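Annex B, item 7. Sequence and structure tokens for protein A, then protein B.
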Amino acid sequence: MPLRIRRYAENDSIFVGEDYLIKGVAGAILWKLLRSYVDERRTDHSNRELRLDPAIRLPDLSENLEARLILLQRRLEERCPGLRIEKTGRGRFRLNVLRPVTLSEIQPNSRPQRAPPSIN
């Protein structure tokens, strides 16, 4: 059964099934990684690409990104066994997707929007 992942665009809250996972900058990071996975089958990423993405709304402090990634990594380990983040080198990491995912995004004042078909 696929992991059903919802993003509430208003505050970047991420839910897996019915359970809250994370929000804010860490939620925006996870959503970007998941969209890249579903849209492009891409799993490898760099800190630099995240820093340059305005959609993530990362504060100016450079160490802030590392802290958010560590928080996200721990939260996935605790609450979402189907997703993992692992370091692959200096400033590089991989999103490991261990189960199929289905994404949906909820815009403010709207009903859920279905993402393209899930990818195994």
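Protein B:
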Amino acid sequence: MDARKARIAAQAERAATKAFDLLNQKLDSESDKITVNQLVPIAGVAVDKLLALRGDPNLRIAFDQPHQHMHAHITDMSWQEILAG
């Protein structure tokens, strides 16, 4: 079991390394074609991986924000009824 896990981990590491190499090549060569909507998740994943691999293992970045908005589109109630509670 341990040998199989080690083999899969090595394969995942190789795939991730190749993917990051290709991503960096694309960012270097075609940066004018990459949209902000594409860059945001790329940057976010890269930062998460950097922190996971090099950062403090106890570090946790938290964005604890309550989920507060109304789903008026999924009810037959009027705005007045929704706001009245």
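Comment on protein B: The first helix runs from residue 2 to 29.
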